[in-house]
Amino acid sequence: MATNTHIEWTQMTWNPVTGCTKVSQGCKHCYAERMSKRLRAMGNDRYRNGFRVTLHDDLIDLPRRWRQPKLVFVNSMSDLFHADVPLQFIQRVFATMAACPQHTFQVLTKRSDRLREIANHLPWPGNVWMGVSVEDEAATHRIVDLQAVPAQVRFLSVEPLIGPLEQLPLAGIHWVIVGGESGPGARPMKAEWVEAVHRQCQDADVAFFFKQWGGVRKDRTGRELHGRTYDEMPVLLPRPRVPHQLAMV
Q: Which CATH number does 2-244 carry?
């Protein structure tokens, strides 16, 4: 199961695992949970278990079939480092990514403790970008775990940003994505929170990507900051060709 996506910082998604459980305040209005319920109601067999963690063994090798280079968000509908995903399964996913150097894979987790624990049991080729979600001050411990992982590109998804982040430890971090929560019940994001993160990225020379202001109708709030869009991406060579709006800086 791979699909093109409207997520601004990637091209497509690949979901060898679906389903998850909530671990922090950033999970409160999980878009993947809402989507999985919708897909199950539509009769999509991949979501027959709803939002329970489900392994899709037949999808592990899917990227090997793609000839053209892709920028791929891994497990947009789950968390690869969930406790219910066996190490052997994670290793097979990483083996596929290592075997497909033409693609760039973006892996994102909230379970940084497990990521750090098993990192030495995984290959870390240059085409695997590893990130953690950091929605507020209580989640910044995940950054410390990420900094211990030998990925060539380490990134933060500061989305949904639901509280101030005044002192981000950005040593060894190459990319920061910032976005407000969207959809039903979306919690507001203050402009000064975004400004603080942007300023810290500038000071640390870290690529900054502003995804959205969010809100119940994110199409109305847009994604401009300072009257422009910020689409900065981490620099890593070699890398795949990407659309103009995802051009490297």
A: 3.20.20
